[in-house]
Design a protein that fits this description.
345 residues, 7-stranded parallel sheet, 41% helix, binds uridine-diphosphate-N-acetylglucosamine
């Protein structure tokens, strides 16, 4: 292994960060260091990563909004050649109620990291963005060159601003090579069932809510609206397995390291291209788990878009990335992880 190839992963104990670390370590090309203050994750995730990969990951428990602490990591870790920046708050509803929390954390942390990229000559940077930057879009599937729509939440706005900040940095500092990966709806868990989505705070996303309802942590779940102009009236989303998302980060990193990028700021959608309704997701879960889900149809959730799914051509052609996991496998692995968690509690 080239000792130079250290990748700094922010939010390494988080849902997508932890799965990406496993894939990075699986390639044996990279050494990984993580920054995570466990604000919505647990240190136990690193024990589980170690169990799966048989490799140890150093985690720096600092707040990315503290620039002095962050700079200290770059003083210590001399061989960082790339950063994958996952760490951010991501609950859409909470961001509407507490905009300061989102603007302060998501923007300041990104600004500090970009400054460190310059100060410590880090050439490669990958940013976790989101399909929420497209807003409420009517032309589907959505392509990367679609202009930003109106951000439906402060969370979505932090992703739009984040992308703009990165783009401006690459114009001013062309030595910086960056990619924004726009995730659609990452779900499922590692095939071992040993890690998955485990927010310390209340679950907000559909699949953890489905599995928590099935296991009895949540008594009954609500399908948010059934009068959208879709085939069964419920919202349509592009669910994508978290390991497929993780693999896309390795492809993106290699794309930059092999200098295949045509621009210093590239954007890729990460989705399967398949739109799935809430009721179809529930039915896939019921089929694969054998569990009957207790749900009711309720009111629409404020800020929800009716339907969104990805155009996948650019990621496939340029990154050479194609998702492999089916909807059934997403549900199967999510359920496996829920059962694993219930063993521990
Ligand atoms: C949103 C963002 C996504 C972001 C993610 C982070 C959009 C279009 N997408 O995803 O970019 O990364 O938040 O959290 O803004 N649902 C129910 N009942 C529930 C929970 C969810 O019916 O109890 C439905 C929702 O109405 C939605 C679908 O399930 O139609 C998926 O919801 P969720 O998992 O929260 O993700 P998004 O809101 O699509």
């Amino acid at each position: 292994m080239n000792s130079k190839n250290t990748i700094l992963v922010t939010g390494g104990a988080g849902y997508i960060g932890s799965h990406t670390i496993i894939e990075l370590l699986g390639t044996s090309d990279f050494k990984v260091v993580s920054v995570d203050n466990f604000s919505n994750s647990s240190a136990k995730t690193f024990e589980r990563i170690e169990k799966i990969t048989e490799k140890k990951v150093t985690n720096y428990r600092i707040d990315l909004c503290n620039k002095t602490d962050l700079e200290q990591i770059f003083e210590t870790e001399k061989n960082i050649i790339g950063i994958i920046h996952f760490a951010a708050f991501k609950a859409v509803g909470e961001s509407v109620l507490h905009p300061h929390k989102y603007y302060y954390n998501n923007i300041n942390s990104l600004l500090n990291i970009l400054e460190c990229c310059l100060k410590f000559n880090i050439p490669n940077f990958i940013f976790s963005s989101s399909c929420s930057v497209y807003g409420n879009i009517s032309k589907l599937p959505v392509k990367e060159d679609t202009p930003f729509g109106k951000a439906e939440s402060p969370y979505a706005y932090t992703k739009q601003v984040g992308e703009e900040m990165i783009k401006d940095y690459t114009i001013a500092f062309p030595q910086l090579h960056t990619i924004a990966l726009r995730y659609f709806n990452p779900v499922g868990s590692h095939i071992t069932g040993l890690i998955g989505e485990s927010p310390l705070n209340k679950a907000n996303n559909l699949v953890p809510i489905i599995t928590q309802t099935a296991i009895g942590k949540i008594k009954q779940m609500t399908v948010f609206g059934n009068d959208y102009p879709t085939r069964d009236g419920t919202c349509i989303r592009d669910y994508i397995h978290v390991t497929d998302i993780a693999i896309a980060h390795i492809k993106a990193l290699m794309y930059l390291m092999e200098k295949k990028n045509k621009s210093n700021f590239s954007i890729f959608n990460l989705g399967t291209g398949e739109g799935v309704s809430v009721l179809e997701a529930i039915s896939a879960f019921e089929k694969t788990s054998g569990e009957k889900l207790n749900y009711i149809i309720g009111d629409k959730r404020p800020g929800d878009v009716g339907a969104i799914y990805s155009d996948t051509e650019k990621s496939e052609k340029e990154l050479g990335w194609k998702p492999r996991f089916s909807l059934d496998e997403m549900m199967e692995t999510a359920w496996k992880w829920e059962l694993e968690q219930s063993k521990k509690n």
